[in-house]
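We recall that each integer encodes one residue's backbone shape. We quote one record:
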Amino acid sequence: MGDFFAVIFGAIIFFVLIVYFASAIRIVRPYEKGIIERLGKYQRTYDQGLHFIIPFVDRLSKVDMRENVVDVPPQEVITKDNVVVTVDAVVYYEATDPVKLMYNVANFYMAATKLAQTNLRNVIGEMQLDESLTSREKINAALRQILDDATDKWGVRVVRVELQRIEPPIDVTEAMHRQMKAERTRRALILEADGDKQAAITRAEGSKGAAILEAEGKAQAIKSVAEAEKFQKIALAEGEADAIKNVYSAIHDGRPDDKLIAIKYLEALQSIAQGPANKVFLPMETAGIMGSIGGIAELFKERGSTME
């Protein structure tokens, strides 16, 4: 009987030892830090790996060092121009000091949520509606700086802040849509008018260029025709002048064929007299010409007698 109780007692002692040693083994993951408290007092910080503690004396608390997110719930915020908008955001943070995060704030998630809500109201409350709708980056940067400064004593660094939505009331949204539509219609009409104006200018310039080219062509044609007529008249005048000179020379020199030249001269005078001029100029050697005319008269008489 005594041996039985001894075995039972030994088994209990063995079980207690197993539990004790199992409680003394602690594993800290790579993304965690271990805070050791001995009898309620901070002792040291463990990094990743396998560690041993004194059971029932030491207490190990793990702090997640990864980047985490705080979802800021939607809330109504009044802008500077007294428009109520619904805003929500998300805050990304990471722990930098596990000791401060463990001992300086009781519930970091709730504290960060309330802090983000309060400062979000302050930042947007200083802006007009139009500015708040178009200044997301500005709001994100301002809110991140405020939260980062406030959470520094908690051993946390705010990485970034992102606004998820900024929703004005329905009536304001509809008015903005109408305004946007009117603005786009105005721009379309302006662009269309500019296009028509540019097209009209281009057509006018084309018509002007065509008219100028046509006028230049007509002027060149008229000039060419005038030059041709001028050349023709000069050639005819020079020919008639040469003929008159030849007749005059023949009459003046008294060559044997003076009678024939005198006849040609008279024919030239006849064609000249039929022209538009109302004056006929005769050479100065009138006596010689008249003598030749007498000879010509005798020539006509001889031709007449022969024909009889």
